[in-house]
């Protein structure tokens, strides 16, 4: 699956939101490099408030970056409405809650055909809609044309949303928590659909989630985000079975079936308008708290020295003074 | 000591939907029972039925013995006394269950004033204690719900449920919509409170992995009935019922090569409670259904010591091949 260049790539991406009433600005995305190759599925994981949704939205051109750039197929995104419209034909968004993202007064046919109409599709609209529904697993498609969202189950609704994204034959899907609101037995079916689309259509996907099991199920590569930055990245096997960043280790240790003693971090992710100095994770870091970082001689660096931004390409990397000190010693 | 005994509970909504169709459960003080199932399987209806919180016109049959007394036969005043003080519910979605225009401290104090018969000063003191018990600073009593994060709001809900020292706490999806880390914090908190105060806990969720980790026993519900019941770990790791198997397979174990690039689900959708399939209600989705399953209903039977399941393959001569 190696291609000359990545399909989508973000370089030094920053998104800051102004603070209200004189509050400091919120650095939601604070320097991110991320590549997604053709036919690659990348999982972006992190807690709520870590900036993962903002990152996904800025990759789609829905939020203009305040710094850095996003390029698609080698060309930087242009932020005028005509260029963005063309871009959005090639990169589609699938949202979390299918009940909220479908118009209750539109039939399935209208919901799926909407994208075609907006983009002035010249071909056979009905055939395109039927094809997209069939690819999303709604067969026979004609039976679903005149149904309304309330007549469908949660899993079927999410398939309609995916069909709406597929109808324009995009090259990239950005799915924000695609199965979080679905039932357990339906979840596996939707994930299997995403995998099948990759095999059959060569579709790339960025899956934004807080569910590490989902990453294990379908992703090639995983990027762990904390407070606006990617703190560990690598193949799924690398990151999920041998995590190096204390934050990734903690996330994995609290899963119900995880071996060993769970590391329950106290508190919630800090505010993106007050990112701590030094390593942004140091205030909650269990390795620093236990004195292990002190032993490794990096405790001062943890508190005072910020880490550089990880490169977006495939190889395994970690933004942690302690993990790096362990490798070199 | 048996705290709660549910016998042959049935709930039918006014529109004819048979949400609960004959459920037996029993729970001792200090023990934790997990109820697993998907949306529409009747698990939340079961929770509401236990405290008679269902809408008027709903038909409820069977017996709900709380400390030996049948909740369904109680007079209204007695039911009111049981709510909060005997048993309380932590509802799912703390955002919607808290009143946005009242301070959380006042909301926690409300059941204490109404049911505990305490004065305002005593109620305020108790509120402070409760907040500390659930790991929030006492000063947060003055906060409005929107000023708290999702995890903090869930802590407030738990504080409220504990306000009148109930013997039974029913937690309906207490950690759904929370992040893994916050989920772990809340689960630890619930476990700690249950063991400290000898509470009985019924925890409802669709996540079998979470229930297996927290609870002692597990009941898996499908279409208004318990289709499998047994010790939590055993049900999670080696379910007897094909639906139990599918549910536990839906949450992959990280590091397990069998689930890498192989998400497992179950074809089809959960059944509509007002239009249930004939025979064994699971047969349209069942990977190991036999011809007879379409007509023959299945009841819970012993499959292994201390374990029961409602499947034609359980306890019969033919063992499931999967």
Automatic annotation (TrEMBL), chain A:
InterPro entries to which the protein is assigned, alphabetical: AAA+_ATPase, ABC_transp_ATP-bind, ABC_transporter-like_ATP-bd, ABC_transporter-like_CS, Oligopep_ABC_C, P-loop_NTPase
Domain ABC transporter per the UniProt entry, residue ranges: 10-252
UniProt keyword Nucleotide-binding present: yes
UniProt keyword terms in alphabetical order: ATP-binding, Nucleotide-binding, Transport
PROSITE patterns, per the entry: ABC_TRANSPORTER_1, ABC_TRANSPORTER_2
Source domain of life: Bacteria
Pfam families, per database record: ABC_tran, oligo_HPY
Gene Ontology terms for molecular function: ATP binding
Family: Belongs to the ABC transporter superfamily.
Protein name: ABC transporter ATP-binding protein
Species name: Streptomyces cylindrosporus
From TrEMBL, chain B:
Residues covered by the ABC transporter domain: 4-248
UniProt keyword terms in alphabetical order: ATP-binding, Cell membrane, Membrane, Nucleotide-binding, Transport
Keyword Hydrolase annotated: no
Species of provenance: Streptomyces cylindrosporus
Location, primary (coarse class): membrane
Family: Belongs to the ABC transporter superfamily.
GO MF terms held by the record: ATP binding
Name of the molecule in the record: ABC transporter ATP-binding protein
PANTHER family per UniProt: DIPEPTIDE TRANSPORT ATP-BINDING PROTEIN DPPD (PTHR43297:SF2), OLIGOPEPTIDE TRANSPORT ATP-BINDING PROTEIN APPD (PTHR43297)
Subcellular location field: Cell membrane
Record-linked Gene3D superfamilies: P-loop containing nucleotide triphosphate hydrolases (3.40.50.300)
């Amino acid at each position: 699956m190696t291609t000359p260049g990545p399909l989508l790539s973000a370089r030094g991406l920053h998104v800051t939101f102004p603070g209200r009433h004189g509050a400091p600005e919120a650095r939601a995305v604070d320097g991110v490099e991320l590549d997604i190759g053709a036919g690659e599925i990348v999982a972006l994981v992190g807690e709520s408030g870590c900036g993962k949704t903002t990152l996904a939205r800025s990759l789609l051109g829905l939020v203009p970056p305040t710094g850095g750039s996003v390029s698609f197929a080698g060309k930087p995104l242009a932020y005028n409405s005509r260029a963005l419209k063309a871009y959005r034909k090639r990169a589609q968004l699938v949202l979390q809650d299918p009940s909220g993202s479908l118009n209750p007064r539109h039939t399935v046919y209208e919901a799926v055909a909407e994208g075609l109409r907006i983009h002035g599709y010249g071909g056979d609209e009905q055939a395109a809609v039927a094809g997209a529904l069939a690819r999303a697993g709604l067969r026979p498609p004609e039976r679903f044309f005149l149904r309304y969202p309330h007549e469908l189950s949660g899993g079927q609704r999410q398939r309609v949303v995916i069909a709406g994204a597929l109808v324009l034959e995009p090259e990239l899907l950005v799915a924000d928590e695609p199965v979080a609101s679905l039932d357990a037995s339906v979840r596996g079916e939707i994930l299997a659909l995403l995998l099948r689309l990759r095999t059959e259509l060569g579709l790339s996907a960025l899956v934004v989630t807080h569910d590490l099991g989902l990453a294990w199920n379908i992703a090639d590569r995983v990027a762990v985000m904390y407070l606006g930055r990617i703190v560990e990245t690598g193949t799924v096997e690398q990151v999920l079975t041998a995590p190096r960043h204390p934050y990734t280790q903690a996330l994995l240790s609290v899963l119900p079936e995880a071996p060993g003693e769970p590391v329950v971090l106290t508190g919630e992710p800090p505010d993106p308008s007050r990112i701590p100095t030094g390593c942004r994770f140091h205030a909650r870091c269990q390795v620093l708290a236990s004195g292990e970082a002190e032993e490794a001689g990096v405790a001062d660096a943890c508190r005072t020295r910020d880490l550089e931004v990880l490169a977006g390409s495939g190889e395994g990397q970690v933004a942690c003074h302690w993990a790096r000190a362990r490798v070199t010693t | 000591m048996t705290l709660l005994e549910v016998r042959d509970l049935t709930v039918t909504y006014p529109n004819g939907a048979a949400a609960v169709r004959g459920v037996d459960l029993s729970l001792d003080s200090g023990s934790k029972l997990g109820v697993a199932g998907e949306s529409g399987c009747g698990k939340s209806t079961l929770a509401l039925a236990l405290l008679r919180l269902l809408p008027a016109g709903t038909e409820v049959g069977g017996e709900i013995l709380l400390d030996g007394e049948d909740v369904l036969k109680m007079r209204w005043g007695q039911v009111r006394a049981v709510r909060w003080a005997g048993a309380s519910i932590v509802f799912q979605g703390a955002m919607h269950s808290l009143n946005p225009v009242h301070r959380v401290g006042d909301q926690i104090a409300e059941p204490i004033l109404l049911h505990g018969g305490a004065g305002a000063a005593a109620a305020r003191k108790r509120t402070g204690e409760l907040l500390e018990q659930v790991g929030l600073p006492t000063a947060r009593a003055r906060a409005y719900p929107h000023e708290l994060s999702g995890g903090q709001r869930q802590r407030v809900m738990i504080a409220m449920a504990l306000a009148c020292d109930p013997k039974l706490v029913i937690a309906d999806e207490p950690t759904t919509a929370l992040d893994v880390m916050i989920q772990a914090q809340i689960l630890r908190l619930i476990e700690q409170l249950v063991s400290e105060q000898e509470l009985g806990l019924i925890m409802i969720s669709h996540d079998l992995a979470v229930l297996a980790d927290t609870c002692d026993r597990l009941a898996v519900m499908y279409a208004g009935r318990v289709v499998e019941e047994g010790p939590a770990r055993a049900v999670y790791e080696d379910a007897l019922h094909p639906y139990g198997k599918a549910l536990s397979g839906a949450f992959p174990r990280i590091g397990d090569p069998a689930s890498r690039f192989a998400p497992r689900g179950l074809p089809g959708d959960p059944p509509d409670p007002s239009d249930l399939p004939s025979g064994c209600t699971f047969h349209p989705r069942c990977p190991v259904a036999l011809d007879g399953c379409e007509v023959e209903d299945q009841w819970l039977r012993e499959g292994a010591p201390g374990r029961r399941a409602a499947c034609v393959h359980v306890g019969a001569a033919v063992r499931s091949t999967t």
